[in-house]
Design a protein that fits this description.
alpha/beta; 4-stranded parallel β-sheet; single chain; 5-stranded mixed β-sheet; Rossmann fold; disordered C terminus; 601 residues; 9 strands
Length: 601
Amino acid sequence: MKIKLKKIPEFLSHIIVENIPLFIIIGILNFFDLGDLRLFLYKVIMPLVIAYTSGAAVEKKYGGITAVIIIGGVLSRYNVDTLLEPVFIGALSGFAIKKYHDFLEKYKFPGFEMLLNNLGVAFISLGLVIILNKVLPFYEGFRTIFYKNIISNLFKTGYLPLYSIIIEPAKVLFMNNFVNHGIFSVLGLSELNEKGKSIFFLLETNPGPGMGLLLAYFFREKEKKKKKEALSNIFIQSIGGIHEVYFPYVLRNLRLILPLILGGMSGIFLFSIFDSGLMGVASPGSIFLITVLTPAQNRLTLLLAVAVSASVTFFLSYIMIRQEDMARDKIKTNESKKLFPDIKTDFAQNKNYNSIYIVCDAGMGSSAMGATFLRRKLEKAGLKDINVGNCSIDKIKSENPDIIIVHRQLLERVKKEVNNAEIVIVDDFLDPKPYDLLVEKTKNYKTIKNPTTQEDKILEHSNIELGLKRIKKEEALKKIGESMIQRGYVEPYYLDSIFEREKISNTYLDNGIAIPHGTFEGKVYIKKTGIVIHQYPYGIDFENGNTAYVLIGIAALEDEHTEIISKIADIVEDEKLAETLTTAIEVEEIYKILCLEDDRA
């Protein structure tokens, strides 16, 4: 129960993060004579977008569009003044569609998939609109009582400074996006319609405490390199809005949480006194973005409050920081060497590493900087073909990387999402030592590209995947391209070539078989000849009324392309063989039909 309750703010945080540009533009429009546009965005577009994001998060294919239809039906009769209604309606829509698709997958209806999907969306949408329009009058009365009595008492202005006792420790434990977007942004958006601004947007995003801590380190450190690092982090934190850069300083000396709490309290107290508030969600928490989203008459007092919170944290931290902390340096050195505690002590030597992802809570700030940092190091080491990316924890499973880099505080959450990737643990996303060691290990174990030989097999048993779940065409193309990359047949850039080829002409053949492959220009990214087979028993909508049940991804060097196409064409023309491919439940059945290496020998 505790885990399920925790997932609610996490889900809300995901919805907010996905739509931050919309919230920012709603705030910025206050500076222009475009009140009607702002009201339209807030009253109509925001509920539609939030409902769509929420529905798609629960059910990717039809959850979003179903949510839009339902929220549209609700908006035609009622005002939606808070963020929770479209989130709930979106999640409900996605859940209903998901259960409907589970039913369709359990009881197969070959040839009627598209009809049943479309009818399902229509009737589920209609049914939920009717039900919600009956229920909403009762809900509106409850909502009025809830927001005017319970919420207003719980978050009385006089008590707000005390929330720093929760906010600052939560931030340092990398729960900053959880707290900000999962709780305070939701409350702020509800208050925004009534007041035109909200103090809730400032509670977590105030850059003052973090700035004060980093300034204290800058003035106390004697070592030139560390002073330079602290100065760099000050600009990253205050101007760039990436607060995560000061978290490692606190985790090395937990006593510093007290200056942060007191600094946060002083800032929130002054925000309350000066009636400060932002006109939109400030993400990232940059002093520049916060200033832009502050009403003109409040900017000076807001900057004063930020400066006071920074000063309080600075003076207290300056006193508490020891000039020479040998224990800290020793711990840092040991942790940098021990990259795989509790998981693995080394990389598997028989695996080819093609993708590395750096993961943080929201997938925007610290992970993006770390990814840029690592990408440059890999390029200098001549490892340009490795895909380096960054994302939030909730998206790492879909990215399916070979190596994941994560902060120690987020390790347990990542382990719940993945179990088939190497995990590198760091204490600071900007510490170069773990990256240097990672680059060295990757160089040692990275499979070197070799020319195709007669002994190479075009098709391996492991290249055949059966019984895959129904997904969108674009996702299926991406999945098969990534499989070809993983098996060393092509460079990562070949994936773009597959999508480009699909734009030129549909690669669906006949009898439920499609052959995704790259363009002629994309052949430069092929390492060696090979094919990958993905079977989708419930079919993939390949447009133009065609449903593909088997996707055969092709990578061929020189004249071998003609040989492979000819073999597959023979199979497609034979309805029995094609049916065997689409209905096979054993890998060996497909392998015997497409045993291409025997033809070539």
